[in-house]
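USER:
Before I trust my own judgement here, I would like a peer's view. Write it directly below this note and I will take it from there.

ASSISTANT:
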Amino acid sequence: HKKMNVFSAPQKEQMPPDFLRKILQDHGDMSSKRYQTEKRLYVGALKYVPHALYKLLENIPMPWESYKEVPVLFHVTGAISFVDRVPKVIEPLYVAQWGTA
């Protein structure tokens, strides 16, 4: 029988925080002519804002956690960013901590 081809995406390296801060700082004021072509990109990214907020709320630290570091996925233009982690929670543990029944 045939072997199935499995595709795995290459791992991308983390960008340094200074580079990400520069992207966000440069795109603070979009009124100049330089950003006329990117405005359409930013308007298009608005449809993903609810998902980005959901991922952010999903990864907020629990009350018993003092600090939580998560990977963040940034668009190259800085148009939108997503928290790139799916929290793993054991169902009985979640019910024990948050359940009222």
In short: The two ends are 52 Å apart (CA to CA). The chain has a mean pLDDT of 79. The first strand starts at residue 72 and ends at 74.
